[in-house]
Every structure is written in C-alpha cells, then in structure tokens.
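Lab notes, practical 5.
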Amino acid sequence: MRQPNFLANPGADLPGATARALPASPRLAGATMGDSASPHALMRLNQALLELQRLRTETLLPLLHQAVAAMRADKPKEGAELAIQALKMDEKCGVAWHILAVCREKSDDFTTALKCYETALQLTPDEPEIANDLGRLAYRMGFMEEAEQLFKAYLEKIPTSADGANNLANAQRDQFRFAEAIETVRAAIHAKPDSALLWNTLGTVLAEQGEMDKAVVFFEESMRLDPAFAKARYNRANARLALGDPQNALIDCQAALKGVTLESEVSMMSLARATMLIAGGELGAGWDAYEARLEAHYADVTHFLFDCPAWTPEMNIEGKRVVLVGEQGLGDEILFANLVPDMIEAVGPEGKLILAIEPRLVPLFQRAFPTAEVGPHFTLRVDHHTVRGARFVEAATLDAWAPLASPLRRFRRRVEDFPNRARFLIPDPARVEHWREVLNTAGAGLKVGIVWKSMVKATSRSRYFAQFEDWGPLLQTKGVVFVNLQYGDSAEEIAYAKSEFGVDIWTPPGIDLKNDLDELAALSAALDLMIGPANAATNIAAAVGAPTWLISTPGAWPKLGTDRYPWYPQVRVFNPPAYNAWAPVIADLAVALSSLADVNGVAGT
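Output from the prediction step:
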C-alpha cells in the first residue's frame, strides 16, 4: 500500500499555528473505532510476540511482554519506557514500535504516536492491525482522507472484518459522504447481521443526516444484539435529547457511563450528561458536571495558558485580579457573557476583571464593560491539541483565571438566577443611527434581518438548521424588507429567493458581516426584528437587546428546561413540534410576522 505521509505539512500544527476552539457539545459515539489498547488489541500483540519468539531469542522479548502488561494495567508511560529499552536492543523490531505507538497514543502524544505507527508499518507492512490502529489515530487527529486510505488497506487484507468496515464508514460519514457510508455498513451487515457495532454506526450516519427517529431504531437494534454495548445506549441518549426528551436521555447516558472505562469516552459521556441535566432544567448539577469539557482526555478540550489558581465557586475574589477567558464558539462567548456583570460586581471597585475574548468582539465588550480590561485571546494548535492564552495579560499580577462559562456554577444555578436585563452588550449609538438612515433607503416595510445557517463545517451542526428552501412562506410575508445578515457566501440563496419566492433580499452595503462584529451589533440594533437559528449573528442581536425571534430545536440545551432563552429576556423562541419538523415552525413565524406587519401598518405595502 502507499503509506500516507501525515507529517508532510507539519507547520500546520506547530506552535504558532492559529486554530479554532470547538464548542463543548456532546458528539455521537460514531467514532466507535475500538481501542488500540483494548483487551482484544493486547491479545493480538501477545500473539505477535509469540510469533516473534519463534523467530528470535533475544532478551528483548521479556521487555515487550512487560510493556504489554503495563498497558493492560493502564500504565502507558511505563509501557513506553520498556518498549524503548527493547528498541535499543533491536531498532528494527516492528512489534516494539507498535507497542510504543500505542503507549504514546494513550499518553496523548499524538505526533510521536504517528511516527511510531508509521515506522511499525514500514517494518511490518503485512501486519494489517497496524494500519487499522494508525487509521484510528489519524481519524482522531482529523486526517480523514488518510484514515480512509488506511481502513481500505486493512479491509483489503481482512475483507470480512466488521471492525474495518465500521471504521471506514465512520471516515466516510465525517467527510459528508453519507450514501457511501450507508453502503459500506449495509454490505457489512449483510455479511454479519449480528454485529451490534455495525448497527450502531448505521444509526450514527442517519442521525448526522437529521433522521433521528430512524437512528433510534438502529441504536435499539444494536442494544438488542449486545445489551452491554454502552456506546449504542449513549447514542440513543443523544438522540433522545435531540428529540426533546432530556429525562430519558439522562437515564440512558448515566447507564452508558457505567459501561465505559476509556478515559476519553468517560469525558465525552460526562459532558453529554451535563448537557442533558442543563436541558432538563437541573442547572446546579448541570453546570458542575459541565466542567468535564476541561478534562485532559476530552477529545475537543482546550488547554488554557494561565499560571495562576483556577477560579472556584467558593473563592472570594473581592479586590482580586481575575481573568475570564472566552471559550468555545463565537456564539458561546456572547451567550456566556450574560454573567460578566456579576463577576464585575464580585471583584468590586478595588478589584479588576480582565476579559480575554475573541478579537472581533473586543470593541463591543470594551463599550459594554468599561470598568473591565478587555483584550483578545489567541488560539494555537500544539501537537494536535488546542491551547488558548492572552498576550495582553500580565500573568504575574493575576489572582485567578476561569473559562468564561465556569462562573455559571456560582451565579446561574437556577433559571430564576438569570436577570431580566434588556441587554448586556452595547452597540455604538452613532452607528445605530447611521444604520437606521441606511435602512430607510431599502424600501418601505419592517426591516427584518435574517440568517439561516452556520458556517461551521461539521456534520453535527447541519442537523440544527432548516434548509433555505423551507423558508418560502416566511420570506413571502407582505410588508417586510428582509435584510441579509448571513456572513459567508449567500449569493446562491439570495438568487434562489428571487427566482423561487419572488423575494428580493436586501444586502446592507459597506459591512463585513463576518469580521466587523461591532458594526453588525449596531446594524442589528437598528432593525425592527432579527430572525434566525442560534448562531453568532442572532446571539449578537439578542445580547444588544434587539427584538429577536429564534428558531430553536426540541432538545436545545440553552433553553434550560424552559420554552424560552433565559439568557435574553426579550427573545421570542419558536419551537418546532418535533425534531426536524421545520414546516410548522416556519408557518408559525410567517403568521407572527404578518401580524407584526399589520400592527405596524405596513402589511400589503
């Protein structure tokens, strides 16, 4: 096979390379790729050592047996040291390189693990399990094309492997090639209909396409075939949450947690459990459990570069210098800023709150929180891990630091703790007036800003947005000028609205909707209304107090067990009657917007 070169462009992941922190949202256990240090995997390594024993008599064999024993005891660093000792005796021992690769991977040293797997594969190219393990690591690191190549090579050697077919389908699914993933799994199920692993993966493909009801059927078939299969139960938990049933989702998730031991899976499921608690209105326990997003073994963890004590809910910070660091996505930073006034009050006039936030938000936050010190954070990728810091902060002067969401544990333990503030971010008043004048040139009618999608390219995000084609009844409302606030390339949708709905969507001139967020905030405040799903634009509009209608989903956790968004008191939430049922919610929006136009005397204009 042609060996993929993962390190051909190492600069993309060296210190100094910018990166984006990911939202701390639960993911489906679609990446059910097995574990390179599972009992079955260790048994394969022992079999390889037996083969090696027949060929060689060197003293490295006892060291390698000890290394495998160390891995079995969950001591990867000890196992690595033993493997290195063996390699000093025979640097061309492929099994030793394989063992070292597994140990480095279990220690989260992905770059070294890659090199070790590649060396093992070069030395023992006929050992298919190395390609499978290397493919799993490549998948974890986001090298989807290379992972797919390795899984295909593995299947060429072992075409009947359910594990290989499962892994290949996961890689295809996460490259948005859903039809290919389904065919890969379907063929494997035909050969092995009793494979719980394959039925689970088929469910994840359907779930990523938004067919959550069908996905549940396949998760339950997987559980029927293997009642102890924790990942299938966990996936059903996530599906139940998406369908608006956080209570039963929580029951499933807690049961699944009892069946996993791999630390990365424990962290993933613990975060999902937190989300389910929050979605069910159990905020105190939910925010406490939400700290799982900071655990080192969580796959999407962000490591923060601050050398001072971490803030805790019990900490007295009056008179102290405390830095809050924005985390996750842009919309999350805005949402969590709801509690910044509480933290300013907690440090008091003798203290200082420092806000390290997304650079595009700095002007808006400076205006809203004049007593705080505001500056940009930076985000890097170091050895395939996300790290975040703030160069403007004088580390020696700090008393404590916290990710922006962590103080929710202290200040928002009940829905009643959310203040009835008209806004917590403040747009530039002069620019608001400017945009009111510009909007007057757009024509007669209510000026309604719209967004309809997220620009985050992830399969899990696509499930939460109606297709633009569904917007027809709303866009045809009389007496409304629709204002395009969708950043990114929206030309196709605007042309579609004109050709299919007979609607001209007006694009505001002279504004960079992606980068000039202070200007976007002013424009949002000048509108009569903002409509869209939860993304950065709707969060900005809501945070500055603009009238906002939010298109939600049944299991959206920011509703906190209510039918509204307690973060933004003025926001009106439109909840679909069922998961993926966009037509009814668009129809409700159209009726409400038509009524608003009537009240304002602009209907029919």
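Observations recorded by the TA: The first strand starts at residue 302 and ends at 304. The chain is about 50% helix and 10% strand.
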